[in-house]
From TrEMBL:
One Pfam family recorded for the sequence: Y1_Tnp
Domain Transposase IS200-like: 1-111
Species of origin: Methylocaldum marinum
Any single biological process term in GO: DNA transposition
Biological classification of the source: Bacteria, Pseudomonadati, Pseudomonadota, Gammaproteobacteria, Methylococcales
Name of the protein described by the UniProt record: Transposase IS200-family protein
Length: 126
């Protein structure tokens, strides 16, 4: 799971529609399989199949670094000098997937509806 800096709700509109393509393209460049993914306004859940030759830290660093440059270039109007500009927060959440891959993929696919349901329960509880 990756989150934007300060967990801002920055992934919406055109960026939300395009971020999947950015991640798919980056994964294709290095031979990583993007099995499943979903973008929410304040985080992204990718399910990746990483070849043994790459470490998880390398893969996450590559994806976050290169996608941040692309996001700044395409959506935030920054054409050069990317030093010091950040889009993603430091750190990430990783879990390995084994026999429960289908459960994880279903969670990623349906997380938006689940978050809406939880939000409605919270609003009703007030």
């Amino acid at each position: 799971m990756f989150v934007p800096k300060y967990r801002r709700r920055a992934i919406y509109g055109t960026l939300r529609r395009r971020v999947g393509g950015i991640f798919r393209e980056l994964c294709r460049q290095v031979g990583i399989e993007l099995v499943e993914g979903h973008a929410m306004p304040d985080h992204i859940h990718p399910c990746l199949s990483i070849p043994p030759k790459f470490s998880v830290a390398y893969t996450v660093g590559f994806l976050k670094g290169k996608s941040a440059v692309r996001i700044h270039r395409e959506f935030l109007g920054q054409k050069r000098n990317f030093t010091g500009l950040h889009f993603w927060a430091k750190g990430y959440c990783v879990s390995t997937v084994g026999l429960d891959e289908q459960v994880i993929r279903a969670y990623i696919r349906h997380q938006e509806a689940e978050e809406r349901r939880i939000e409605q329960l919270y609003i009703q509880g007030l």
